[in-house]
Amino acid sequence: DAGITQSPRYKITETGRQVTLMCHQTWSHSYMFWYRQDLGHGLRLIYYSAAADITDKGEVPDGYVVSRSKTENFPLTLESATRSQTSVYFCASSEIGSGWTEAFFGQGTRLTVV
Amino acid sequence: KQEVTQIPAALSVPEGENLVLNCSFTDSAIYNLQWFRQDPGKGLTSLLLIQSSQREQTSGRLNASLDKSSGRSTLYIAASQPGDSATYLCAAMNAGGTSYGKLTFGQGTILTVHP
User: Fold this and answer.
1) Distances (CA, A) of A9 to A20, A72, B43, B86
2) Which of A90, B60, B68, B80 is the most exposed place for a label (fewest CB within 10 A)?
3) What's residue A100's pLDDT?
4) Nearest Cα residue in chain A from B34
5) In this complex, is the C-beta atom of B101 within 8 Å of any C-beta atom belonging to chain A?
6) Confidence band for A2, pLDDT divided at 50, 70 and 90
7) Cβ A48 vs Cβ A33: under 8 Å
8) Does the beta-carbon distance from B46 to A106 stay under 8 Å?
């Protein structure tokens, strides 16, 4: 099925553990994004990628690592999880041709760090 | 730095009313303005996309307008229904400098339509 999928949907992890959130899109969009959504802060950009092997920091990148070896995948890794990283994480993709297309979002991953 | 503000933060209306949600942005250097809907515990669903060269877009009972010079967009919902209850988010796709290609979101308007 065409679309953007995130896994897992729910994750509980312990402080200090490494955890990876997966994102896969089937449109071959060049641009992919990771956002976190928190009460009182709305959606904030963590990292984004303009193409395979091209990534850049967003508004709140500290404590996160991304990679993009293939166009369709954009995993987000929390190197050493902290309670402040408890959040809902959304992956998105978009494309620019003659103009930017709509941004499409995954269903989100609810991460709890205990 | 782009800042996006949505007013009101929450809105409760009876079924059948027409309503307007407001979105303002501080940097007019945008590619487009996108409106999303988010149901509780769900992801974001794109409703309407207005390119910077456009003034408005319509989809069914929804109409979104864009005034880039004043930094404002509105989402008009006609004949509201209980199924319209959700959080509505606007996002500006930035065109300038280090913000190129990034979406900046407002905090959202929580809409409740009661029967």
Assistant:
1) 12, 18, 11, 21
2) B60
3) 67
4) A102
5) yes
6) low
7) yes
8) no
Q: Which residue, B74, B61, B83, is CA-closest to B20?
A: B74
Summarised one tens digit per residue, pLDDT across range A61-95 is 999 999 999 999 999 999 999 999 999 999 999 98
Name, in order, each residue with C-beta under 8 angstroms of A82's C-beta and a sequence gap of 6 or more.
A15, A63, A113
Query: Are A60 and A89 a contacting pair, CB within 8 Å?
Result: no
- Closest by Cα among A47, A30, A26, A57 to A89: A47
CA dist., res. A5 & res. A62, Å (int) = 24
Residues 22-41 of B with CB under 8 A from A: 31-32, 34, 36
User: CB contact, 8 Å: B105 with chain A?
Assistant: yes
pLDDT category, B102, cuts 50, 70, 90? Answer: confident
What pLDDT score does B101 carry? 75
Q: Which residues of A touch B (CB under 8 A)?
A: 31, 33, 35, 42-43, 45, 48, 50, 58, 90, 92, 94, 96, 99-108
* Cβ–Cβ < 8 Å for B16, B65: no
Q: Give the minimum alpha-carbon distance from B11 to chain A in angstroms, rounded to a whole number.
A: 17
